[in-house]
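FAQ: What does a ligand-bound record look like?

Like this one, built around FE2/S2 (inorganic) cluster:
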Amino acid sequence: MPTALAPRDYSLTGPENRRAGERGLADAEWYTCLIPRSRLKELMQRRDGPAIRDTLLWFALLIITGTLGCLTWGTWWTILPFTVYGVLYGSCSDSRWHESLHRTAFKTVWMNDALYELASFMVLRESVPWRWSHTRHHTDTIIVGRDPEIAVPRPPDLLGLALSFFSLKSGPREFHRMTLHSFGRLTPGEATYIPEIERPKVYRNARIYLAIYLAVIATGVATRSFLPLMLVGFPSFYGAWLLLVFGLTQHAGLAEDVLDHRLNCRTVYMNPVLRYLYWEMNYHVEHHMFPLVPYHALGHLHQELKADMPKPYDGLWAAYREIIPTLLRQTKDPAYHVQRLLPASARALGSTPQPAS
Amino acid sequence: MWIDAVNAADIAREDVLRFDLGERTFALYRTQDDRYFATDGLCTHAKVHLAGGFVLDQVIECPKHNGRFNFTTGQAMGAPACVNLKTYPTKVEAGRLWVNIA
Ligand code: FES
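The answer part, i.e. the structure of the complex:
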């Protein structure tokens, strides 16, 4: 077990990977709340309308704030529209990326795939590797040595987290990987979850992404202006802070190595504006338990399941009142984590991890 | 070998039902227009029962990672579903659904 002296190895190719397998934590059966099949079927129904409306609004806001940014460029006023543009580009793209990855945003498949490619570029995540990484995240959510998307390994790297508000940790890493992929190579961790058949697509897409960035830089050089980069590329950094504010609520400070999403995910109540920006991913326990339910039905799913769930957090502030002290304590005591209280009615887990050999 | 599996009416329209036979497990489907199909019960991406998934037209979406298969042909329709599903002939006789599992 983790101790203050021996932090765990979060890589997918180290001893924790084998240990997770030995403990029955890899590819395991997870707890699922009971819900009548007929009701679940209603909630899984796909619709185009909500996501078309939300996406058109998103594009309109990007165009308006981007245009205002251009018009005020060279004055201090430009900070205002670019602050909003950056968040719409660098943070909202995260939830659009996520929902279209699951192909639950729209009923029409090509619309999901088109939004996925666009949002992947905007959020600075190559579309093919990240599809497979997120697939693994759903198989082995916060299982050390298996999940490539553990946002806050213990002990928390507070400086790294601070840098992440502007993607200064993940951004350079993504560009490094993109360059590696463009030369036809993967990292050793990626090789554990990206199948052979998908790899040519990884390499091709990386070359396309790099070509777009080079074209934007060339435009900037030709026009002797930073403005093209303010519109494309740079917002993935200066606009990423809200992505982190939302994203950390999902799992940070909660249990590792449990087979119950109620213990390692947070559901946080948010107001309608935040839920629009985050596309309802605040219902994170529900999403992990039933990933086939589209974002616009997650609130209803929450109502169905909440009697079998721990108490949700009453807003971002309530979540951070728990997250901040927990992460600070974990810097000294990496084994410490928040223990979510399950209702007395909760069923036993579908399967229980075995002690490590 | 034909197996008398379930009451055809036990499968809701545009839905899927799990059917176990010894060690084997199958997914049985009924379309909106009352046609019946059968495939292997487990997703080809990981060992997850497709019967927990979502049926839309002729497509079953896996409940774990939303991998999609055409259940009439077994064809995998894109990552993370990359390997086709095995399909089995079906017939309905006297209200019972039969599956040829040979
Ligand atoms: S287990 Fe079915 S898509 Fe992954």
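Follow-up question: can I read anything off the structure? Yes, for example: Chain B has one domain: 2-100.
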